[in-house]
Amino acid sequence: MDIELVEIPKWNCCGAVSSLTADDVMHHVAPIRNLIRVIEMNEEGLVNDEKRLIVFCSMCFNVLRRSNKRVKEDPKFLETINSFMDEERDYDGSVKVMHFLEILRDIGFYKVKERVKKPLKGLKVSAYYGCTLLRPRGVGIDDPEAPSIMEKFIESLGAEVVDNPYKSLCCGSYHTVGGNKELVAERAYKIINAARERGADLIITSCPLCAFNLDNRQELTKKIHPDFEHMPVLYFTQLMALAMGMESETGFDGNYIDPRPLLRERGFLEG
Amino acid sequence: MTETIIIKDRNIDLLRLASEISGEVITLCEQCGICTTSCPMAEDMDITPASIMRYTQLGDEFVLETRAIWYCASCFSCTVRCPRGIDLAKVAEALRQIKLRKNQDYLKIDELKEEAEELPAIALVSAMRKYTG
Ligand code: SF4
Ligand code: SF4
Question: Which chain A residues are within 8 Å of B94, Cβ to Cβ?
């Protein structure tokens, strides 16, 4: 699609969740440090005049865009951050943080469609947005109450969209760690069942934590609700790879609920 | 009819501190309850999100001992709907921080053991950021 992605050399973990307090500067250092790397990449010629940072993970995207937004809106805050990192050059707020789906939207979903080798005709796909791709307003990439970007993505791959009233209901996020896993398993039950009732074959999501919660936690969901029927949950790029004929890149080995039997049955996978 | 609310351990400092840490004007809350109806966790909480706001307004330290402040998953559903423009996710974070800054962690990392091996890094990092100080 005439874009080449260049990975940040020496990237660091953004922290996964944005610090929501007014007085915590420390936790904004990690995300901003990644943005400084982007400026350096331009200077080193790894990219030319390209200050867009493309993020796939919804949570990283949210953290990076929030920190970036805050330093842009609050020069004093930026100054404090810069003074925290005396071993780094100063950040100037010039990087643009974008989610990969936004890039696809900018290029045009019709272009994605042109690249599809194997349209997923008849496959019924339900989008799960979760929280961090949409909220809060001013950070999210689409209308927080009525998003449509993932549906457009699904359509561009030739699949059929199945709506889900719980597509942006929180899956329980980090409650999947420790003693509150049932909170997550119950929400997976609700979200997946709603998709199934409307005829979905599978769900896609752009957040790795949502993917884990909706996919791997089905084991616990099944324990709590023996009537529960499993459903494959794919990372959105897996579906894209499948439709673009890049089967070796689909990475279905990593899914807890294996989507391959279903995809073979429908003729989207060989063998 | 007048209803009498008995506030135990009233502590105006709590309201002040929560306001400072969250950066939100907590007293603006009009108790409409939209946050509660928007909240995906409310059904499992011991008090509702709107009650979190009310107890905090009143400076009642009871709020710090609720399950609700930990069950809040920072999903921002209330944030995008509050008619008064309050970011309740930030208020809940402030209340958790008040506990965490006193070294009262919600999660004991060493109790995770083998569970930690099957969890993706994104789960562990986010849980540690939210549950531990
Ligand atoms: S939605 Fe806002 S104003 Fe209404 S109860 Fe919740 S915090 Fe208060
Ligand atoms: S941010 Fe917390 S209180 Fe608000 S809706 Fe989400 S879980 Fe409920």
Answer: 20-21
ipTM of the complex: 0.93
Handedness of CA A118, A119, A125, A127 (dihedral sign): positive
Q: Which ligand is nearest to the CA of B82?
A: 1
Q: Are residues B83 and B69 in the same domain?
A: yes
Quote the number of domains for chain B.
2
Q: What kind of architecture, by CATH, is found in domain A108-265? A: 3-Layer(aba) Sandwich (3.40)
Taking only the tens place, the pLDDT of each residue in A141-172 is 999 999 999 999 999 999 999 999 999 999 99
Pocket test for ligand 2, best of B75, B76, B126 (most atoms within 8 A of CB): B75
- Cβ distance A233 to A206 under 8 Å? no
Asked whether the beta carbons of A179 and A214 are under 8 A apart, the reply is no
Compute the distance from residue A105 Cα to the ligand 2 centre, in Å. 29
Cβ-Cβ contacts under 8 Å between A and B: the total is 118
